[in-house]
Design brief:
This protein is α/β, with parallel strands linked by helices. The chain has an 8-stranded parallel β-barrel with strand order 1-2-3-4-5-6-7-8, surrounded by 5 helices. Helices cover 38% and strands 16% of the residues. Keywords: Oxidoreductase.
Length: 305
């Protein structure tokens, strides 16, 4: 029995945030996805669902999750973390499994969350250079972005190596048929994000930005994730909130940063193409927040970068 496309109306009295959540994407892991009985009861039809590949997760679990979510009518984008992929043969095997068992044609390519490569690959550029994604007909490739820096790449706290890598990826997009975008780490303050986006444009990097936003969650949970993931200046937003006893026990919602991004867009600084939700407080909670604030299923359409 098929379900009708999801069309829940926004909750009356809650602002739609200017439609910034229209076409949002969301991230899951196999173990969190397993707790969801049917994604069609939570997400708008056509939502892009990233599947995070954490070191130690068997590829069989990743592919089974992709097959299940794709079968429910969603665009599936699995992570390919370079440093946990042993060699070209393993990369080809993963691509073939996703394609053959779940009809996947898109991927998020990233270095991965471990310090030492387990094989031949160290970064996402090497995955792209392999040519295997193009050969398999993967039409969309996303790459990671770090608006507040990444000390795993630039240990001095700067951004020289990160910018060099993004310029390479911009050139790759120009010489290939891949539709590309930058999917970023989550942030809590619009200021650093907008400065980073403007810096990219000044550097000639025009890849669309899909900005990571943490969904509603307990403040303590967010601070823990933010520290573990190396979130930079915008962590102060959470720390300041933690000092206010009237807010300490209230769940965090990303309304302030989203409102600031809407205002920036209205002022002509619309550099963010799409919002990507990290459901740190639970998939159901994040999905409900998005729908309540104007989230819809329509994915943005743009020319090849």
């Amino acid at each position: 029995m098929s379900l009708l496309p999801f069309r829940r109306k926004p909750t009356p009295g809650i602002p739609a945030l200017g439609g910034i959540l229209s076409g949002y994407s969301i991230e899951v892991m196999p173990r969190t996805a397993a707790k969801v009985e049917d994604f069609r009861a939570l997400l708008p039809a056509g939502t892009r669902v990233y599947i995070a590949h954490i070191d130690g997760t068997p590829i069989e679990d990743m592919v089974a999750t992709a097959r299940r979510i794709a079968g429910e009518g969603f665009e599936v984008m699995p992570h390919f973390p370079a440093r946990i992929i042993r060699d070209r043969a393993m990369l080809g095997d993963w691509i073939a499994r996703y394609q053959g068992e779940a009809d996947v044609r898109q991927a998020l390519l990233l270095g991965g969350g471990i310090a030492t490569p387990q094989g031949d690959f160290d970064n996402s550029m090497q995955l792209m250079e392999s040519g295997l994604f193009d050969k398999a007909g993967f039409r969309r490739l996303h790459v990671a972005g770090h608006p507040e820096g990444n000390r795993d790449i630039d240990a001095d706290g700067g951004d020289e190596m990160v910018m060099q890598a993004l310029r390479w990826k911009q050139d790759f997009a120009a010489r290939s048929d891949a539709e590309m975008a930058i999917a970023t780490q989550f942030a809590f303050d619009a200021g650093p994000v907008l400065l980073w986006a403007a810096r990219l444009r000044a550097e000639g990097i025009a890849l669309p930005i899909h900005l990571g936003i943490a969904g509603p969650a307990k403040l303590q949970t967010l601070i823990r994730f933010a520290i573990a993931c190396g979130v930079g200046p915008s962590l102060k937003v959470l720390q300041k909130r933690a000092l206010d006893v009237t807010k300490l026990m209230l769940p965090y919602e990303p309304t302030e940063i989203l409102s600031d991004l809407v205002a920036a867009s209205a002022a002509g600084n619309g550099l963010i193409e799409q919002i990507h939700l990290f459901p740190l407080g639970g998939i159901k909670t994040a999905a409900q927040f998005a729908i309540d604030h104007g989230g819809a299923a329509t994915l943005p359409v743009h020319a090849k970068a």
